[in-house]
Amino acid sequence: MKKNLTAVFAVILLACFSLLTQAQSHDGIGNNMNNLYRMSKAKTRSISAENFTGEKGKGGMATEGTHQSAARDLGQGWKVSPAISIKAESTFTLADVQGQGAIQHIWMTPTGNWRNLILRMYWDGEDEPSVEVPLGDFFCSGWGKSKQISSLAVCVNPHNGFNSYWTMPFRKGYKVTVENLSPKDVTLFFQIDYCLTDVEDDAAYFHSQFRRSNPHPYKEDFVMIDNINGRGQYVGAYLNWGTNNSGWWGEGEIKFFIDDDEQFPTICGTGTEDYFCGAYCFVEDNEYTDFSTPYTGFYALTPDKLWNSQMRFGLYRWHVTDPIRFEKNLKVTIQALGWREDGRYLPLQGEDLSSVVFWYQAEPHSTFPELPGKDELTVY
Q: For the chain, where are the alpha helices, taking DSSP H only?
């Protein structure tokens, strides 16, 4: 009953915050409950396995596809191609669109090992991606297990229904790819909803990057992101925390080094659970308590008696109403710090830490560090 009431409360909060969110324009990009009544010249388009180009009047035309056997008695127009097969160790281009506008929603549900599927996004014909993240982590599901998330930016619904609502402007076009690093073929159902419309001069480009440290070294800060150069705003992060220590693990401070900060940051948090807007170890009634709200959330994956031996946690925070703005550069770190029974801090070692940071900035962006290989990415 308690969990059901929490879920209902989260849905109510989500609706309330959606009503309060203010639109920045009426071009059909930044829609919410406050401006849905406004007319726009934007043209709505959608790409899926039933319409790979997103062209008007071209959906549901497939005569062959992943489900043509199931539709053999019905034929064209009857769900012949609702998904794609991504061959082992290959890359599939989901979308390659020309024009001006914005991605408004992405839905995906994949098979296989989500850490072995790499999602990349390119804006305006750039050679290097602005988004390069394992697919599950992009949707706050970095441990390969689906937990329900009800937030403004990302929703995860039963069963493994991944949704992104980040607005992603483009001025000349965009490309989205998924690379399958695994030795087995995978199936992916997907839909990318976007609009074609004029983009404001001050619209920045969406970026997202993955980092992992496993095992994490003793007395070293975990660098969630660095080498962001240019002007923009940090809008949130998803953090995976796998601990190999007993006791509390979240004393560490998050630090934002803004515009040439050196030894000391401009923004310094007071603890891991504090940054993710919880308190006192996320514990109620002597157990971890999951929560999912419009802007913040936390979940715990409890070990079983056999294969899953470590405690693993997922945390997200979106800076929708409080973006962290930078003019020159940005670096974000968090400490791996626990608590000793004698009342002293305990620097942790051997943790499995990974993060996805989300930000907007003017192009060009700095080159991303090389993504770890398949074995280094995989959660075991």
A: 2-20, 135-138, 272-275, 374-377
State the distance between the two ends of the chain, measured CA to CA, in whole angstroms: 33
Q: Which residues contact 287 (CB under 8 A, 6 or more apart)?
A: none
Q: How far is CA 294 from CA 15, 29, 117, 325, in A?
A: 9, 20, 27, 21
Q: If you ran DSSP here, which 8-state letter would residue 114 be given?
A: G
Confidence of residue 303 (pLDDT cuts 50, 70, 90): confident
Question: How sure is the predictor about 7, in pLDDT bands with cuts at 50, 70 and 90?
Answer: low
Spatial contact of 31 and 165, defined as CB atoms under 8 Å apart: no
Residue 256 amino acid letter: F
> How many Å apart are CA 175 and CA 99, to the nearest integer?
11
247-269 per-position pLDDT tens digit? 999 999 999 999 999 999 999 99
SS3 281: helix
For the segment 45-56, the average pLDDT, to the nearest whole number, is: 97
**C-alpha–C-alpha distance, residues 83 and 224, integer Å:** 34
What residues does each domain of the chain span?
Answer: 2-57+80-377
Q: Which residues contact 197 (CB under 8 A, 6 or more apart)?
A: 27, 28, 29, 40, 41, 42, 43, 100, 101, 102
The CATH architecture of the domain made up of 2-57+80-377 is: Sandwich (2.60)
The total number of residues shown for the chain amounts to: 380
